[in-house]
């Protein structure tokens, strides 16, 4: 007879890290515009350096263009400019070094160390010295150009082309922003569902899971904020995204309010977790959280449909007017009433997300 405990017995499992074509298709769908932008910019940089300036192998023009744009979601012109500046710094240091040194392994080590030190001193961004170091290494190992500064000119051509493409052929930021926004709303919905279940059943483990999910909201919100900031920065530079500025401003208002909603939701989840420590079900609180959860779904519709704001405001306003802990939970303990109190600022922030001015939203709450 085996002495192995069946609860701790090691079971064989299949390796699950196989390639998933669907995930690859999703990545391609989300990146096709960036790929087209990079290809057009790189080809344009090569053509200008080769045909206009007569450079036979304008490698740096192409590499600076590709590296400056990249496939990252944050394609703000300031980020592109920062990367271009780092690369040109590396090329310039390499050009100066080649006036005194011949290419070699120890010479490369010295020049690379000098580049990283100078670039790190120049910028707080960790990507800046890396961009400079890569271009230093490439430029230092390439043959000398036909004239002094030719490779700096190549790099400048690539940088200018990257900035021009960012402005004249911008990536549409709306899809990425909405995708990240829907992720946040879905995460908030799941969090509220766990908190509501914990209160309905008096289940401390479910309430704890809701608290854990509330603490994880920061990551998805940061992604939404990054894509929104990138979109607003690109729209301020590109004349082709001028018509999107009003929509981006409305999405920024929703994002700012939802940031506060997620912060308050962490407090709600924490107080709900404390409230169910006695294991007693709390159907009234569970129903209240469920009502707020459904109002969050209405606010999410405002992302793509501004006309949905009226219905969302009406529903959130109705909930706000009920948030008097003494009337909602007569005779309840302080822990239960604290859950209701913590919902009050959250509902105000939801009203703001739905388009109501903050001062008016705050007046919808009953005095306590």
Question: What is the secondary structure topology, with strand pairs?
Answer:
Elements: H1 21-52, H2 59-69, H3 77-97, H4 105-122, H5 127-141, H6 150-168, H7 173-201, H8 204-215, H9 217-237, H10 245-275, H11 283-301, H12 309-320, H13 325-328, H14 334-353, H15 358-362
Helix pairs in contact: 1-2, 1-6, 2-3, 2-6, 3-4, 3-5, 3-6, 4-5, 7-8, 7-9, 7-10, 7-11, 8-10, 9-10, 10-14, 11-12, 11-14, 12-14
CATH topology name of the largest domain: Methane Monooxygenase Hydroxylase, Chain G, domain 1
What Rg is obtained from the alpha carbons, in whole angstroms? Answer: 28 Å
Q: Structurally, how many domains make up the residues?
A: 2
Number of E-type strands: 0
CATH architecture of the largest domain: Up-down Bundle
Question: Which structural class best describes the helix and strand composition?
Answer: mainly alpha
How many DSSP helices?
Answer: 15
Helix share, percent = over 70%
CATH class of the largest domain: Mainly Alpha
Order of helices and strands: HHHHHHHHHHHHHHH
Distance between the termini: 67 Å
Q: Could you say which overall geometry the principal axes of the C-alpha atoms support?
A: elongated
Beta-strand content bin: under 5%
Largest sheet properties: none
pLDDT averaged over residues: 86
Q: List the uncertain runs.
A: 4-8
């Amino acid at each position: 007879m085996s002495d192995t405990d069946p609860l701790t017995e090691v079971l064989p499992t299949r390796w699950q890290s196989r390639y998933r074509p669907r995930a690859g298709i999703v990545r391609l769908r989300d990146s096709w515009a960036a790929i087209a932008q990079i290809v057009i910019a790189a080809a344009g940089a090569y053509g200008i350096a080769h045909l206009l300036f007569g450079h036979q192998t304008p490698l740096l023009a192409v590499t600076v263009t590709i590296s400056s744009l990249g496939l990252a979601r944050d394609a703000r012109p300031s980020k592109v400019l920062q990367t271009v500046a780092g690369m040109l710094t590396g090329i310039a240091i390499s050009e100066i070094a080649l006036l005194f040194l011949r290419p070699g392994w120890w010479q490369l080590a010295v020049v690379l160390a000098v580049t990283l030190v100078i670039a790190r001193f120049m910028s707080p961004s960790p990507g800046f010295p890396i961009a400079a170091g890569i271009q230093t290494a490439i430029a230092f190992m390439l043959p000398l150009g036909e004239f002094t500064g030719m490779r700096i000119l190549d790099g400048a051509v690539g940088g200018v082309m990257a900035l021009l493409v960012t402005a004249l052929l911008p990536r549409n930021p709306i899809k990425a922003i909405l995708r990240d926004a829907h992720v946040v709303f879905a995460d908030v919905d799941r969090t509220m569902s766990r908190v509501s279940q914990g209160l309905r059943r008096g289940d401390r483990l479910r309430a704890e899971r809701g608290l854990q999910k509330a603490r994880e909201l920061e990551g998805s919100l940061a992604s939404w904020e990054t894509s929104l900031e990138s979109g607003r920065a690109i729209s301020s530079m590109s004349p082709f995204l001028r018509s999107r500025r009003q929509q981006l401003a409305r999405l920024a208002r929703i994002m700012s309010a939802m940031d506060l909603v997620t912060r308050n939701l962490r407090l709600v989840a924490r107080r709900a977790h404390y409230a169910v420590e006695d294991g007693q079900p709390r159907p009234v609180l569970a129903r209240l959280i469920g009502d707020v959860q459904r109002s969050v779904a209405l606010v999410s519709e405002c992302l793509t449909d501004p006309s949905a704001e009226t219905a969302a405001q009406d529903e959130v306003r109705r909930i706000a007017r009920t948030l008097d802990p003494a009337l909602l939970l007569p005779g309840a303990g302080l822990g239960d009433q604290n859950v209701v109190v913590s919902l009050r600022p959250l509902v105000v922030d939801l009203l703001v997300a739905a388009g109501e001015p903050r001062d008016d939203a705050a007046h919808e709450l009953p005095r306590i």
